[in-house]
Amino acid sequence: MSDNLKPCIICVAITGSVPTKANNPALPISVAEQIESTQEAFEAGAAIVHAHVRNDDQTPSSDPDRFARLMEGVQKHCPGMIIQLSTGGRSGAGQARGGMLPLRPDMASLSVGSNNFPTRVYENPPDLVDWLAGEMRTYGVKPEIEAFDLSHIHQAAAMNRDGRIPGQLYVQFVMGVKNAMPVDRDVFDYYIRTVQRLAPDAEWCAAGIGRHQITLNEWCVSAGGHARTGLEDNVRIDANTLAPSNAALVRRTVELCEKYRRPVATWQQAREMLRLRAA
Fold this sequence. Notes:
The protein has a single domain, classed as Aldolase class I (TIM Barrel). The longest helix has 14 residues, at about 30-45. The protein is an alpha/beta fold. It has helices spanning about 30-45, 65-75, 125-140, 150-160, 185-200, 215-225, 245-260, 265-275, and strands spanning about 10-15, 50, 55, 60, 80-85, 105-110, 115, 120, 140-145, 170-175, 205-210, 225-230, 235-240, 240. The protein contains eight helices and 14 strands. The model has no long low-confidence stretch (mean pLDDT about 95). The chain is about 35% helix and about 20% strand.
């Protein structure tokens, strides 16, 4: 299928582990708020929800019970939507980061290497990466590779070849995190070529942080990839306006699909392209 006809999968990252209601009152924190926000985004065109959970005081949580309640609500109100849970390092330490994988979400994020964040090192030691990948294999969870660096694409491809990440790869380029990979079009284009060379059947997307979100959305849509948006990565529509909801950011991405004449993937199409089990 040519890139300009290929449906674009929109992922909405609803909460994350960093923004708070002080950054944007629209940020959904409680499980009930997250379910409502996800339903709005689903109806606006998102086929994947990328989800963290929070404690009542807004601090990041790795509580499997909260993840279970969120999954139950999304499955009820957004039937067929792809649920992708975060195993990111801000929500817990060590194997606690994968404590929700026995819930068998459709997907889970997997960072296969370490890198710098603004004030700390985002540690993903090899033994933890292998353990998380093993748990995903055990429970039938498809990894979403979060590539903060070129080496992460090479490592994911190596893990794919030796069976630690079986099947088709799904790689997300993360750009715009301070001290990590900046937003650079030459790098973005090279990432695409690298994925296509090392894993020809892979699907790819990208996440732009902060004001770069709309830039990466447009690069992805125009280049035939998939797009991630949402309040986790960016709490504003523009420099002067807070985003009123996750759905508003999804609708902005849908407009880009219309601009480049890319159809927006339904959840059925997204599941087929990512080779996921039936809803």
